Amino acid sequence: MRPILLVAMLAAPVLAERAVRRTGEILEGGVTVSMAERRVTQGKKVFPFEEFHLVEQDDGRMIWAPDFRARLRGYEVLAAFRARTTIARVALAAAKAGLPDLAASLLAEAAAAGLPDDEGRAIEKEIAKVKAKSPAQGFRDGLERDAAAARGLLPRLLIERAQAALAEPEAREGGLRLLREALLLQPDIPEGRKLLEAHAPSAFPLGDARFWLDWHLDLELLGARTAPEGELELNRARSHWRPDLYGLVSSPVLLITPLRETRVVGRCLAYGRLACETLAAMFATDQPMKRHASPLTIMLYTDHKEYRQHSGAYLQFEDREFLEHTVGHYSPGEQVSRFFWYADPGAERRIIGTCVHELTHHWLEQQCPRYAASQLRRDGNLPGHWIVEGFATFMEEGRYSAERRTADLFNPRSYSLDVVQSLATAGGLIEWSRLYAITGKDFVALSRENKTPVIRRWSLRKSLCSERRIFYKQAGATCAYLFHAEGGALRPRLIDFVIASYTGQSDKLDPRVAFGMAPEELGGRVVEFARRVASGWKP
Amino acid sequence: MGPQSVGGHLQSKRAVSARQGVCRAASRALLRGWIALACIAAPGDAGAQEFAAPAGRWPDARGTASGSYASRALPLIGDVEEAWKLALPGGAAGAPVHWDGIAYLICVDGTRRALLAVDLASGKVRATKALPPGPAHPALVWDRLVLVRVTESQIMGYSLGGSSFEQRWKPDTGSLPIGEPVVADSEVYFVAEGSLLRLRFGKSRSEVVASGNFLGRPALCGNLVLALCHAESPGYAPSLHISAFDRRTGRHEATSNVAWYAGGEMPTLDAGGAITVTPGEICVEAPAPLKTTEGQSSHAFLSCRIERDRIAFTGSAGMHDLLAPPSCHAGGTLALSGGQPARWHLWARNKEGQMMGTVLADGADRPDLLRHPLPATVLGDIAYFGSWAADLRTGEILWYLPVTDPKFAAVPADGLVLIVDGRTLRAFREAGGS
Description:
The complex is a heterodimer of chains A (about 550) and B (about 425). Chain A has about 550 residues and is of the alpha+beta class. Chain A has four domains: about 1-65; about 75-150, no CATH class; about 210-375, 3-Layer(aba) Sandwich (Glutaredoxin), CATH 3.40.30; about 375-539. Helix content of chain A is about 50%, strand content about 15%. Chain A is built from 21 helices and 16 strands. Chain A has helices at about 1-10, 70-95, 100-110, 115-130, 135-150, 155-165, 170-185, 190-200, 210-220, 230-240, 260-280, 305-310, 345-365, 385-395, 415-425, 430-435, 440-445, 465-485, 490-500, 510-515, 520-535; strands at about 15-20, 25-35, 40, 45-50, 50-55, 60-65, 225, 245-250, 255, 295-300, 330, 335-340, 400, 405-410, 450-455, 460-465. In chain A, the strands form four sheets. Chain A has a six-stranded antiparallel beta sheet. In chain A, strands 7-8-9-10-12-11 form a six-stranded mixed beta sheet, sandwiched between helices. A two-stranded antiparallel sheet of chain A has the order 13-14. Chain A starts with a helix and ends in a 5-residue tail after the last helix. Chain B has about 425 residues and is mainly beta. The two termini of chain B are about 35 Å apart. Chain B is built from two helices and 37 strands. Mean pLDDT of chain B is about 85; it is low at about 1-50. In chain B, the strands form nine sheets. In chain B, strands 2, 5, 6, 7, 8 and 9 form a six-stranded antiparallel beta sheet that branches. In chain B, strands 22, 23, 24, 25 and 26 form a five-stranded antiparallel beta sheet that branches. Chain B is globular, with a radius of gyration of 20 Å. Classes of the chains: A alpha+beta (about 550), B mainly beta (about 425). The interface of A and B includes residues 77, 118, 181 and 458 of A.
């Protein structure tokens, strides 16, 4: 933030208007800040910076805050302080005007907003003293208007701060978050809606501002906009699928959907983009091959039925059966990822997981800079199909934060590692030598019947897994081992193995050649790794 | 300032809370630091919120006087790490209670007892008060007044002044042994020698709410106080009943028969027993085994409809053997049932009023999850099952605490979970927090 940098350059103490301590105490008047010594002084009292949410100047410009969360919390404390003191003042006025009921009700609101008990008792005593009168209706209305204005102080203050933050490009993300909090408190506040409209892409219906902002936040965070480069795809989808679709780009991802579940849409885009960025960092090279410049297109359907119907139209009849059993897929022929929305507990995370999984296939086919499009091979007879699904599963299980824009590919609760460590003890794993030799065609033949019981460390419920699902998990766990274990020493070989698989270099798709280990040895190490993670190991 | 003077102020908080309702409180979840914390439960409202302790308060070892083990604190859902730990000068007499950032607990070492105040932010002991030798009862706290049963028949109120405890209240509770008390709205309810009694903060004498064969731990819910009582009629086996009274008027509202005692004899009045009130359900921990069609059971469930000051018992008792007191969840009652194997159930009544249980965790599959049969603490859809937590909607386990000897239910505080592990009080927070 510019003000921070500006002030940081000054060695002399700076006069501040107010400072909000983490205890909720507000220091006002005679407050000075020494950036060099990282301390706040008021009279003879000296406090270290660590004790504060924020320190600000008279016009609300911030002098210091440790992070955005603290700054937001500081604003809340300030706003609640003002709201409750104003409400308490109106309560006192109501008591003096002979309106004990209104006064008591306002006092209770002030108390609920944190008015200290001693101040509350003092007003309570005033209320007890007065006798009920019937002042003019206009007077009473005026008091109630004052009270209503006081109640709205908090969202209004947050919007004020949001407006200031949105004017600074570096503080835009923080501004949107403040705006979101204000709208959560008072969804219909006109100032908030106006500000939102000013910062929203004009082509998208605003709808419920709060939900829109959930989506908008993530999307704006990633710099998305309505997408001219996706127009062709969108128009095609509108004519073949349904006319009420909209398309959004959060480069390199284009999402086409009729869904208005803005939170999920936004998160799919945000996490999809994060996954692509993570892949780009993993496969970065000094000599990148030129790849397809068009966005990675995702079709997000409203339900399984629509997913089946629409996806099936592009598939041969004999290929359609798999749609019954999948929650999503990447279609290499069309270069489109497809999945559908469903609402049940925990669905959001699973949908996002599917999005990342399919986008991993998609990115590796379309955008990986380590090989050219002409080098791509799709051969169902190639061994080592585990790397295709395993790598996408590994990416799917990463821990992504859209807000912090970070990806952590080590997930101690990884479903794959959990299943492997469980089945390694109980029995039911696919033999490792067989697993690593499975081709694309063999994979299609794996059983889908859920019959192997799995008791996972990270779930209360016993689940039944099919052979195919176990394949995914063992493959995902192998990728997790190769990525994280041995201090990351095997990571380059894992990347090379992925490249070899996508470019059809069958001679490199043998674990002995690629990793210097027999399949059973590699499998044993994966099991050992899964057990270590279950007992708390971290890279 | 006498603690009773707070009453009116708190009552007004309750009034506004009732008017504003749960939705507004929820929409202000962000402001839970002061708003949710100050919202005292509005018992007449629908939903589970009113049975839950506010985020910054846990007045009773069971959370609230409804005995529900529910909290409005935001649950920890990510990885957890230890925030601090504190070696205790003895075994804890019960789960810690806390009010506005200070936790209180009683430690017992042989005949020595001490009341501790612990700063939740730092984990440091703020004050210690040696107590006379006596029973190992947990403390209660309301409006920063800490209530301790200093002897079998005496309750004492202390408040924290700087770095020491000051005795603030010594009511006359007579010379008879008193049962487990509950506190809410500056009133304490307990049973002594068959009578249900009330103490108002600051008053020196207790008042009799009702006399009879009352026993165990009562429960408060809105303007109602519920208590267990025996009944014995000529020609009939002795049975256990539950009675409800209006707290303001003392008027008897309703009584429902729970079940007959399996042994055919009434247990003594100091045999214990407790009530948990949840939305639409009351669970009774019986002072002695109750008769069922199959044999006997330790716990009974009654369905009921509770309004602010009215109660209607709408269904007969379902009977279960439970390994730990049940807790309240919006979707029903969470309970750890005994038997081979033990199981965590989420019980709810269907439209026909039958208790239907969903097995959350089965001891046959996961004996590790049932190693410590402690009550679950409920925070919305997240439950802290002693040393681990799970999302009740998805069945996903959120975290495990690295504790070896958890003694009581995990206590939620704003941003923390507290647990007594052997002779150590440990606090955990979400990893990366401060």
